[in-house]
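Researcher: Quick test of sequence recovery. Tokens follow.
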């Protein structure tokens, strides 16, 4: 297998992609408040149109919540009927380039930094102390009930229907990085003793049920991808066998692809990224004194400090999933930086590669590789883009010029 294999079509359920390059969701911070809702800006539309024009088969809007109180950040969008037209404007901008677009749908669970909540205490799998939410009065969490789970599954279905109505080609259900569905999957957060906690069969029950309901609702119209952890990266967290069990269950309910990631943000943020700690970058824009204190404290720990970067840093774990899961389409993510890396992923039997930071640094990298360029990404893994989504001008690679702030003050469409 060679790089050429990555330029062959890929079927994801109802969606056919012209090649096997997918843009990873990298939260953009490109919204504005209109009325009571965060809406997409012209910057968000231009950002994704630019990435799609650069050659990826599918670009992904990062981290859109399924409900207002499922948001982590104040400026985050929720995919609801109130934001549908705005989301449609972004999809139309991508389609105008001939590209395809996916909406990443998530729920923060306990990882919230917004004061907008139905319940004073944010819900998660278990009752815990929650330093992450202390700045917005969410120092304690509550154990979700069966009714809560049903309501949130309904919200995932409704958000997927909004994506379909807004013209999206795919959705990606976020089950990784420590957000709600990841909290259910991980023993780091899930201490339940009922049928939703304990064994892996129990911990995957709610996330798989969400996927099943979403596939039933929109799977004939949209590709349904799931992003989930190979490992949380901390002793006592999820490990590769948990991911394999999840992959089998997702395949059984008809999900179309699994994007394999890792890391549980409150415990192991740098396991997700690798490279330079993003603490300094985040401090640049963080206003809350409590959050600044937490970031400074965290930066002193190995889990949040500088971490060696390695190309294809999830490959060894992902190969174990590939060996165990034959039917499910699997996408390799994490440190894909060069045509050689892509050829390796294809030779390993992965169905697609997913790139985040390299496409922030060079949106046209895939076109360059298609035209025969052999150089790898110029991304230096400094992770300064992570702070930039809170800058007011939206996410950017610091190796490039500043974003046009005015574009981020204008509604999309
Ligand atoms: C600025 C930035 C924002 C990110 N936001 C998201 C997000 O919204 N959702 C998500 O699943 N991952 C997010 N990630 C993680 C990426 O999707 C990806 O998993 C990670 O960057 C590793 O891939 P890479 O080595 O190709 O960059 C973000 C990464 C960066 C750099
Ligand atoms: S080089 Fe650019 S894209 Fe890469 S980590 Fe740094 S800011 Fe992000």
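Model:
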């Amino acid at each position: 297998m060679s790089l050429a294999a990555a330029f062959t079509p890929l079927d994801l359920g109802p969606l056919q992609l012209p090649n096997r390059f997918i843009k990873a969701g990298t939260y953009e911070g490109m919204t504005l408040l209109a009325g009571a809702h965060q809406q997409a800006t012209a910057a968000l539309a231009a950002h994704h149109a630019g990435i799609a024009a650069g050659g990826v088969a599918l670009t992904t809007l990062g981290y859109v919540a399924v409900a207002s109180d499922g948001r982590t950040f104040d400026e985050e969008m929720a995919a609801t009927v109130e934001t549908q037209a705005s989301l449609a404007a972004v999809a139309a901008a991508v389609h105008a380039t001939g590209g395809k677009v996916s909406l990443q749908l998530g729920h923060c669970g306990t990882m919230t930094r917004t004061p907008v909540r139905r319940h004073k205490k944010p819900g998660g799998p278990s009752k815990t102390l929650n330093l992450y939410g202390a700045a917005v009065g969410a120092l304690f969490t509550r154990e979700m009930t069966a009714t809560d789970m049903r309501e949130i599954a309904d919200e995932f279905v409704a958000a997927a229907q909004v994506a379909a109505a807004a013209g999206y080609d795919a959705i990606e259900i976020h089950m990784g990085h420590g957000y709600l569905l990841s909290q259910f999957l991980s023993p780091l957060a899930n201490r339940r003793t009922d049928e939703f906690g304990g064994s892996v069969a129990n911990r995957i029950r709610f996330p798989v049920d969400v996927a099943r309901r979403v596939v039933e609702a929109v799977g004939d119209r949209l590709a349904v991808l799931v992003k989930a952890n190979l490992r949380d990266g901390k002793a006592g967290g999820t490990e590769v066998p948990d991911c394999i069990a999840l992959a089998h269950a997702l395949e059984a309910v008809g999900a179309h692809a699994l994007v394999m990631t890792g890391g549980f943000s409150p415990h192991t943020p740098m396991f997700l990224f690798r490279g330079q700690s993003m603490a300094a970058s985040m401090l640049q824009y963080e206003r809350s004194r409590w959050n600044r204190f937490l970031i400074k404290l965290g930066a002193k720990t190995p889990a949040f400090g500088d971490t060696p970067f390695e190309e294809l840093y999830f490959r060894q774990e992902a190969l174990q999933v590939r060996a165990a899961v034959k039917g499910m389409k699997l996408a390799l993510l994490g440190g894909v930086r060069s045509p050689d890396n892509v050829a390796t992923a294809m030779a390993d039997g992965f169905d697609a590669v997913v790139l985040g930071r390299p496409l922030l640094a060079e949106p046209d990298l895939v076109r360059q590789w298609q035209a025969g360029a052999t150089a790898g990404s110029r991304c230096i893994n400094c992770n300064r883009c992570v702070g930039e989504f809170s800058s007011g001008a939206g996410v950017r690679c610091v190796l490039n010029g500043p974003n046009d702030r005015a574009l981020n003050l204008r509604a999309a469409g």
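The chain has one domain: 3-409.
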